[in-house]
Amino acid sequence: MRRPWRLLAEGTALLTALVVAFPLYWMVLSAFKPAGEIASDRPRPWTLSPTLAAFRRVFGQQEFGRYFVNSLVVAGSVVIASALIAFLAATAVTRFRFRFRTTLLIMFLVAQMVPVEALTIPLFFLMRDFGQLNTLGSLILPHIAFSLPFAIWMLRGFVKAVPEALEEAAYLDGASRSRFLWQILFPLVLPGLVATSVFSFISAWNDFLFAKSFLISDTSQSTLPMALLVFYKPDDPDWGGVMAASTVMTVPVLVFFVLVQRRLVSGLGGAVKD
Amino acid sequence: MLGALLVYPVYQLGLISLFRYTQAQVSGGEPAVFRGFGNYADLFADGEFWRVLLATVVFAAACVGSTLAVGCALAVLLTRIRAVPRLALMLAALGAWATPAVTGSTVWLFLFDPDFGPVNRVFGLGDHSWTYGRYSAFLLVLLEVVWCSFPFVMVTVYAGIRAVPAEVLEAAALDGASHWRIWRSVLAPMLRPILTVVTIQSVIWDFKVFTQIYVMTNGGGIAGQNLVLNVYAYQQAFASSRYGLGSAIGVVMLLLLLAVTLVYLRLLRRQGEEL
């Protein structure tokens, strides 16, 4: 491409990056601003006197640390369980021919269309009947179920990409089925597993609806999104507190993303290649 | 387990939608009364339902269109630039992607806050309230939804373009094809499976938008002006304790999404693509 055009394209890219990153910058900035500057009607894009007061308010509020741990437990269990199950299920639907295989695949797609919010109603009754209301289990189980169809659907492409000849070679060399599964196939589809884990992690970490509906009375089981809204009252929001809580809630996801970033890009590319 | 936690609730959803199911039935005070399709009749006779349905379809279509346009344009842009600006854009996008929906919603609300937000200052809008008017509130939510969902499209399409062998593009360029022509006749067909995946996913996600609307318009806006089906169902069920009616809305949503996706898959199959 000619030089001026490339510079223009790069300028556009940088500008877009700035616009896209601005809300996050503003969030972190506002979390450190003293209350007086937040409530000023001339907001400035910097602060000269950063303070941790808003964070102190957040962590002093009820048991924010505990909500944080609760959220970690939920998201962690969902990621591990759904990665394992999705790996086995994806292998099953790609490597074996059986009756209803196509039906099953279509069902995985259909399952993603089910509006989770609508299912809150029957799930609420289900959890009540099993006595699971107000427990973290009531969040973990539905999240595993709802992240699985997408995870299986994406992983299928990765398993398919591993040549069947490799499998035959492994058996000829005397490898057992489980040895092939865990020592050969597993490392090969790991990038795909990472990409799908990102999705299940985010959906579990962000969940607002299940937490709002299933954890009614026991606030010690509450998760971060619920705790965040404590600061957000429509009439008189404590913006400093909201922004500090938002920062605390966003940082773990960002860390997770940065850790898996490279695998994610190659993973998404592979998933859809088939 | 899939069966227990997906199929069973869907079955229950359909079942509850056929009953009069309110607070009295939940606490076991009264038996549930079978109403057949009474809930659906109520729903279809209600003008508000049609208004919400229209709003949902238009809003979701706008979200999907904008997200795909922005995502694809930026993906093409990414392939044309050097490593440093590419990394900057990629990191910014990953940041937006990683932001939880609840946080994203509150941050965007704050940015557009009439009293303390920077946006109104920069554009000199005074204390114009974005969430007061119906369309400006929808616009605000749309911006947030596009912001947090274009990265998925961008990263996926970018990865797809990188997977197209360079020789193919060189050959096309040697044959004298223009940029537009290369995109339309070479890249687009090769990327079709990817575009299909991101389109279906976007439709599914944007049609079911919940958290953004719920948080940003405080549960559906003034007098429910910003309700979409999902929030509407939730409000009917959990706020008004009309679980039967809420379930009926859920069933309608499910059927709509199913229809859209089936039509899409049928079109694909006609073009000779395999699922």
From TrEMBL, chain A:
Domain spans labelled ABC transmembrane type-1: 68-260
CDD domains xrefs: TM_PBP2 (cd06261)
The organism of origin for this protein: Streptomyces pyxinicus
Principal location: membrane
Membrane-protein topology: Multi-pass membrane protein
Alphabetical keyword list: Cell membrane, Membrane, Transmembrane, Transmembrane helix, Transport
Domain of life: Bacteria
PANTHER family membership: INNER MEMBRANE ABC TRANSPORTER PERMEASE PROTEIN YCJP, MALTOSE TRANSPORT SYSTEM PERMEASE-RELATED
Pfam families attached to this UniProt entry: BPD_transp_1
Cited InterPro entries: BP-dep_ABC_trans_perm, MetI-like, MetI-like_sf
The name this protein goes by in its record: Carbohydrate ABC transporter permease
Locations listed in the record: Cell membrane
Family: Belongs to the binding-protein-dependent transport system permease family.
Parts of the chain that traverse the membrane: 7-28, 67-92, 104-127, 139-159, 180-205, 239-260
